[in-house]
Specification:
The protein has helices spanning 16-23, 70-74, 106-118, 120-123, 126-129, 140-151, 171-180; strands spanning 5-8, 29-32, 57-60, 64-66, 82-87, 97-104, 153-156, 162-165, 197-200. The chain is α/β, with parallel strands linked by helices. The protein has one domain: Spore Coat Polysaccharide Biosynthesis Protein SpsA, Chain A (Alpha-Beta Complex), CATH 3.90.550. It has a 6-stranded mixed beta sheet with strand order 2-1-3-6-5-7, with helices on both faces.
């Protein structure tokens, strides 16, 4: 069965090359280019939580790259009532999940969108105000985790499947990322074949 994948590329922070990278690998990619329903930047991913579909969908950040056997990641099985993500790798994060990858049944998650729209002033800057995230626009993944845990079973793909990446890594940076990677190595003259998703950090 074909899988629908959604992402946002809003504003000029990320160029069209990020979008092209995903278009070349995903048959049914839906890209949101404008802010909808009063949501700002990455908060627009919440629009996908109310998609009219009885099948699971995947939501990706635009600043990711899919490598190796990435289809295994996209088609990772979930059941109704489950919400799949990847773990946060920021050591100071107060959020367990990482907003770069979500998989869920939209019929299970519409309440997350509805709650935010009904209480936008309460949530939009909450995680910035308490010091959990830097401003000026942030906290979407914190909100999603908070709401998911109210009703759904939060699951994670294997930690060896994902990792951080930068455009021009130095030897010192690679040494650090290899030490932090939970498998044998992350990058040694090429990526570990287990790695399926790279999340770029600026």
């Amino acid at each position: 069965m074909a899988l629908d994948v959604y992402t946002c590329r809003i504003g000029d922070k990320y160029g069209f090359d990020y979008e092209i990278s995903l278009i070349e690998k995903i048959d049914r990619l839906h890209v949101l280019h404008t802010e909808n329903n009063g949501l700002k930047l990455q908060w627009n991913k919440l629009n996908f939580f109310k998609v009219d579909s009885d099948e699971p969908i995947v939501v990706l950040d635009i600043d990711i790259d899919l490598i190796n056997n990435y289809e295994e990641l996209l088609h990772y099985p979930i059941k109704r009532g489950e919400f799949l993500s990847i773990r946060s790798w920021w050591e100071d994060s107060q959020c367990e999940l990482n907003g770069g990858f979500y998989k869920f049944y939209p019929s299970d998650t519409k309440y997350i969108y509805d709650e935010f729209i009904a209480n936008k002033d309460k949530y939009e800057n909450h995680w910035i105000d308490i010091g959990a995230k830097p401003g000026p626009v942030n906290g979407e993944e914190n909100y999603v985790e908070y709401m998911v845990k109210k009703r759904l079973d939060l699951k994670f793909v294997p930690d060896t499947w994902t990792g951080r990446w930068i455009e021009e890594p130095t030897k010192d940076w690679l040494s650090q990322i290899n030490r932090k990677y939970p498998g044998e190595y992350f990058y040694l003259d090429g990526f570990n074949p287990e790695v399926k998703l790279l999340h770029y950090t600026m």
